[in-house]
Amino acid sequence: MVGRFYIPVSCFGYARGAVHGYPVLRVKLFNLAGEELEVELGVDTGFEGSILLDRETYEFFAVGELPREAWRRYRTLAGPLPMRTARAVAELGGRRFEVLVETPCTAAVSGSRGASCSTRWSSCSTGRGAKPA
Amino acid sequence: MKKVTLVVKGADERRLREFKAEAVRRGLKLSEALEEAIELWLSAKPVLDEVDANNLAYLRAKRLLEGQEGRYAVFAFGRMVGVFESLEEVSRALRSLDPRPRHAVVVKVGVDKPGELEWWGGSISP
Lengths: 133, 126
Prior knowledge:
The complex is a heterodimer. Chain A contains two helices and eight strands, in the order E-E-E-E-H-E-E-E-E-H. Chain A is mostly beta strands. Chain A has a single domain (20-125), classed as Cathepsin D, subunit A, domain 1 (Beta Barrel), CATH 2.40.70.10. In chain A, strands 1, 2, 3, 4, 5, 6, 7 and 8 form an eight-stranded mixed beta sheet that branches. In chain A, a hairpin with a 5-residue loop joins strand 2 and strand 3. Chain A is globular and about 45 Å long. By secondary structure, chain B is α+β, with helices and mostly antiparallel strands. Chain B has one domain. In chain B, 44% of the residues lie in helices and 14% in strands. Chain B has helices at 13-25, 30-61, 87-96; strands at residues 72-76, 79-84, 105-108, 116-118. A three-stranded antiparallel beta sheet of chain B has the order 2-1-3. Chain B is elongated. Strand 5 of chain A pairs parallel with strand 4 of chain B, so a sheet runs across the interface.
């Protein structure tokens, strides 16, 4: 029989929401010029992309932005939403990952921050399959 | 905040009339609408210019990037900085630029493509 043991390394902190609290990850992000920014990202926001940032925070990563033709679009209840997309490096659990950070093209949706709970992050927390950037 | 009186000569009458009407529609005083417009122009203009220039440089060089799949091409100040094997090399190249760019296009050739994803609601409930 083959199994896998999971050992908790640390617990998520919770941030206070308008109605309910939500789990947050504290992550160090680096822009492509090597400058560092520490942010708290809400987890499982329903955002399927990599890391969602507010407009002001995103500008820090504009030094590694993807060309316009590679920006992604998201299906939302209000219709498709185009997003600016930039490359960055995230440090979590002592490992570094190449990630994409995004922000809505329109300023109207600024103020959100979060990370999708993707396999990449779970790879990081279990320490398997992680590829240092 | 110190308030000053501003007199502007030679403004386009029709455009100014539209501006005043829009300020009224939004429930703003003319001075408040002007402050908003100035703030928007100052915050967006420099970034948009650099974004446009770097994207244009990328489009011009796109054909030259064929055969460079998996490498990182960097565009800043409206020109191609170079093609690099790793993000460390990209980082060194960006840091070596003087002045340091506020915006650069960095494309992983053959990898960065547009896509459509979803943004609905979270699944964790209390």
